[in-house]
Amino acid sequence: MSTAPTPVGAELTPHTHVDPAHDSSKAWLLVIDPQVIFAEQSSDWASPMWEAAWANIERLAEAFEGRVILTRWIPTADRSTSWGEYFEAWPFADVPASDPLYDLTPEAAALGASHVIDEPTFGKWGTQLTAITGGSPRLVVAGVSTDCCVISTVLPAADSGAWITLVGDACAGSDQGNHERALSIMGLFAPQVRIATTNEVLSLG
């Protein structure tokens, strides 16, 4: 396991701000894809940042008890679409959704989440999520990977009118550079998307 980098949220000074509109007491904690395929270091898609991110996710989950949503990415997309080529490029991932690769990590499964949502797309914003949160929710977002499923969830949610607080040090990228680049891109969408640290979010609880 790689040593955890310094949380990036503190580096994005213009966007590292949480105001009362993003008060965690009125928000849902949305944890993107805390699954074996992204956490287990033997996986081709393991994030070297996962262990440090998970430590912060656990802290957040304690504060959001009863308001925690976990998601899973599952490999059920139509193979006649571009997803077919995607799975040809990553044959290790082209297994049934019941494969242990796609399980929640044991730690995530033990978190006692209010809801678990399965989607065959990188982005998790959609009718399953809004049926729980409403159409314009306040979401505190964490998870993996920053540069794929997290950004694919955050930007459509913000575009639909959700208030997003993205917890930079509770996200894990495919690597440190991609993590930083994804945070920088999402930070461009302030005030709909605000980048914060775990400590900043918890200070509002």
UniProtKB/TrEMBL annotation:
Top-level lineage group: Bacteria
Signal peptide annotation: none
Protein name: Isochorismatase-like domain-containing protein
One example GO MF annotation: hydrolase activity
Domain Isochorismatase-like, residue spans: 28-191
Xref: InterPro entries: Isochorismatase-like_dom (IPR000868), Isochorismatase-like_hydrls (IPR050272), Isochorismatase-like_sf (IPR036380)
Provenance organism: Dermabacter vaginalis
Gene3D superfamilies: Isochorismatase-like
Keywords per UniProt: Hydrolase
